[in-house]
Design a protein that fits this description.
By secondary structure, this protein is of the alpha/beta class. It is built from 10 helices and 16 strands. This is Quinone oxidoreductase.
Length: 323
């Protein structure tokens, strides 16, 4: 028996229960992974609260790193002893050990520790697909990025700097502004005391930006649209403040804007492409262009406290759970 966090109902952090679970041998196409670190992501909150449907009872979490203990028949992409990470597959990463589809496991390079990798799988790969696929940045663009001091945000700051992109990042406090700047964000806007639209127009000589990456959602929708140039791109990559509903006529009125609501699953397949994405991310890390370490750490049994901190905006950067 091993320990795992389970949900029997949706709701607040209190619904997360630490339970004993049985983990069997991997079947065809599967691998058993013993976790060293588990990543906390805001999407976990969506599943916990029921915003994203989840058959119950169930596990939680889709992002972890560890070592392969055993593989089932037909598996040749990983072997026992391999250090791996993953960000796809069924919910259930909040566990000491689990059986996974082997095809979603990403081998980790020797130069990247498990602790670092735990901050990179979902968050780093999200930065990759946002900056390199959803709206491919070439360098020289001016962009607006909401929540620049978050887990994805700090990686995005560094990636933007590596690409030669002028990044305007929104944050909620001066402390987060300093952190975002230290990680490469060109300009910061402290939303608790500054008007985002006015500052963006000031920083762009009244032109606005070509693209906005908005993981906040409902609360920042109109701000994001008002910061865009005509024919600009609104990338709605999260809804932490609530869902986004946009009338297409509004997009026309605001300047014939483009809007997309991307999902990782549509940008990461097939497996060779996923491995190429990871190779680009790992290359930046190994070269020192992206440095990523956990900023908060909780024991697995304290997952509820980790969720409270995340939802209360008391975290910066990445948060990990230690099984």
């Amino acid at each position: 028996m091993v320990k795992a966090i389970r949900l029997h109902e949706t709701g607040g952090p209190e619904v997360l229960r630490l339970e004993d679970v049985e983990v069997g041998e991997p079947g065809p196409g599967q691998a058993r992974v013993r976790h060293s670190y588990i990543a906390l992501n805001f999407i976990d909150v969506y599943f916990r609260t029921g915003r994203y449907p989840l058959a119950l009872p169930n596990g939680l979490g889709s992002d972890a790193v560890g070592v392969v203990e055993a593989v089932g028949p037909g598996v040749d992409c990983v072997k026992p002893g391999d250090r791996v990470g993953y960000l796809m597959g069924p919910q259930g990463a909040y566990a000491q050990v689990r059986v996974m589809p082997a095809e979603v496991l990403i081998p980790l390079p020797d130069g990247i520790s498990d602790r670092t990798a735990a901050t990179l799988m979902m968050k780093g790969m999200t930065a990759q697909y946002l900056f390199r696929q959803v709206y491919p940045l070439q360098g020289g663009e001016t962009i607006l990025y909401h929540a620049a001091a978050g887990g994805v945000g700090l990686i995005a700051c560094q990636w933007a700097r590596a690409l030669g992109v002028i990044m305007i990042g929104t944050v909620s406090t001066d402390e987060k502004a300093a952190l975002a700047k230290a990680n490469g964000c060109t300009h910061t806007i402290v939303t608790s005391r500054e008007n985002t639209v006015e500052r963006v127009k000031e920083l762009t000589d009244g032109k606005g930006v070509k693209v906005v990456y908005d993981s906040v959602g409902k609360d920042t929708l109109m701000t994001s649209l008002d910061c865009l140039q005509p024919r600009g791109h609104f990338v709605s990559n999260g809804t932490s403040s609530g869902s986004v509903i946009v009338d297409s006529q509004l997009l026309a009125q605001k300047g014939s804007l483009w809007m997309t609501r991307p999902a990782m699953i549509h940008y990461i397949h097939p497996r060779p492409h996923m491995l190429d994405m990871a190779a680009e991310l790992f290359g930046h890390v190994l070269a020192g262009r992206i440095v990523s370490e956990p900023q908060q750490e909780f024991a697995l049994e304290d997952a509820a406290d980790a969720h409270r901190a995340l939802e209360g905006r008391k975290t910066v950067g990445s948060t990990i759970l230690v099984p």
